[in-house]
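Re: that chain you flagged

S.,

Sorry for the slow reply, it's been a week of failed gels. I finally had a moment to sit down with the sequence you sent. For the record, here it is as I used it:
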Amino acid sequence: ALMDAGRPDEAVVAFRRAVALDSHSGFEKHMYLGQLLGNSVEAVSELRTGIEILRTNRSSCPENAERHEELAGYEVSALCGIAEILLGIAEESKDVRVLERLDAEIEMAVGQAVAVSIEGSPGGIEASMALANLRLSQGRSREALAAIQRVVSAMRHGLDIIETSDDNNEDIIR
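Prediction finished late last night. Pasting the structure tokens below so you have them in one place:
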């Protein structure tokens, strides 16, 4: 509600208070706080805490349960969020050692996102996009293109079933 009202600073205070009251349950508060903190080490720490709680929740669900898949999707999003934040921090850094460490951390976060994601799912698409972004930042354009092609292929099925009509009732998208 505070974010919707354009009061992000107050939202950060509220989420920090929620985390202080109970930091060991409720992965969502850590995820939201991590998103609000921007490109910072604290944001990455909150997302990682949220992921650990989420993994505990997910491990208690049967693998074929809808909740298990839902939590996997949240985990993929959080891992991609970590990669995005770390890429932002890397862009601001000039220290080669820091850049090498960040590259390894980004690689690990994206690799985990790809491993957890279900191919063709929204999480799989998000993980492939994160992989493409990482490969572009590394100057590995062929691998980035391959990841983008996987995204387009996964999305194509969804686009094929959309039918939009003009006034003459003619299909615009097939």
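What I noticed first: The CA atoms of residues 77 and 85 lie 12 Å apart.

Talk soon,
D.
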